[in-house]
Amino acid sequence: MATTRRASTRPPTRPTKPEAPTLVLFVRHGQTATTGKHLPGRAPGLHLSDVGHEQAAVAAGRLAELSRLDAVYSSPLERARETATPIAAARKQKVTIDRGLLECDFGEWTGAELKKLMKLPEWRTVQGYPSGFRFPGGESFLEMQDRIVGAVQRLVERHRGGVVVCVSHADPIKAAVAQALGTHLDLFQRIVISTCSVTAVAYGRGTPAVLTVNSTGGSLTELKAS
Questions:
Q1: Is 29 among the residues known to form the active site?
Q2: 103 is known as an active-site residue
Q3: How far apart are CA 63 and CA 25, in angstroms?
Q4: Which of 5, 60, 104, 221 has the fewest CB atoms within 10 Å, i.e. the most exposed one?
Q5: Which residue from 58, 50, 28 is spatially nearest to 148, judged by alpha carbons?
Q6: Is residue 67 part of a domain?
Q7: Catalytic residue selected from 29, 38, 82, 139
Q8: Domain for residue 9, yes or no?
Q9: What is the pTM of this model?
């Protein structure tokens, strides 16, 4: 005897709309009097040069064109805060300090001339095997990468689906980009991060998407965290 199956009264399940990624815009601080000459590290009192202030103004203008900007975060060092200030002001935002965005702790190498450091046998390790190097009395590259990646994860959770600016320093930004690309830290020295450049990474529930690296000119309005 055939049986009759009753039609289900349960409403059809609607597909869940995927959560929008969070767009993180990494900005390296502007030029200082020591850029390319010394390794200033975390030493206090280093400010932007006149060129650096001009670069910061240009970066602020580029970022002001974005349709959305939810927050501006900065390393606590003066050169980073002075870069973040016009960016935030252009969007009527405030600058929030996050120590996770700090420069690497170069320990005993802090303030040293780069041309002298390049003559040291350890410099070859810094360039070719950074994952195995710790600055004397300072931080290792692995610790630096863990620190900034952790900071970015916190900010992404805080601003889900938003747009966030993080003003930091060359090596931490390079380390964050390497992690986003799935590139081993030993290759991160191949990434170039110029002063006041913008690097955009979209962080979603899956793997990050690197949208642009070391952008120093042109419009940023086409960046989409999709």
A1: yes
A2: yes
A3: 9
A4: 5
A5: 28
A6: yes
A7: 29
A8: no
A9: 0.91
